[in-house]
Amino acid sequence: MKSSIYIADDHPILVKGLEEFLKEKKFNVIGTGYDGTTALNFILKNTPEIAILDIDMPKLSGIEIAKKCLKEKVGTKIILITLHKEIELYLQAKKLNIYGYLLKEFAIEEIQCCIESVLNNTPFFSSKIREVLNFSEEDCKILNQFSMAERRILMLVSQHKTNKEIGRLLFLSPRTIEKHRSKIILKLDLPPKTGALLQWTQKNKHIFTKSNIGY
Question: Residue 102's domain spans which residues?
Fold first, then answer.
């Protein structure tokens, strides 16, 4: 029996294009949809082996559907496609054990390899998005260690801001900032010398851009 595939995106032309391409390649597309609620209901009812979902859809996003499927322990393997190039979405997908992640501009080019990889239980995260983001897997691991507050503090530390200046910008006391810095230093296993954190942020400044930390 052929593996079943479901496609959902709020752009009908993209859905039609993907559906026709996959059928031409002899994949078994069992349904399509144009909003998140329809997609989730279909997945819960039919449990396709693979669901190709747009991240940004009306009613429910692809990320929200993935969260609900994870909570309900649905066996469908989710591939996300997106126009967005923010690292935060990429990291969310990693945390949710998403099986595939593609940029829409490369979707047709990469979807066959992605599906074949996923059917072999091997996640496929497009190298093209990492090229666009100028981000490596190691960078992702580093960023994933930190809370949103810690990421913002690291960005400001990289800009040579003092604890007092950071506190004023984030509406926190300098003492709270110092506690955050101590936790960050422990996570990074940095030596307890003055300037060690600043030196580290200068080497890794590209990780802590506004788009990467959610500003």
Answer: 4-132
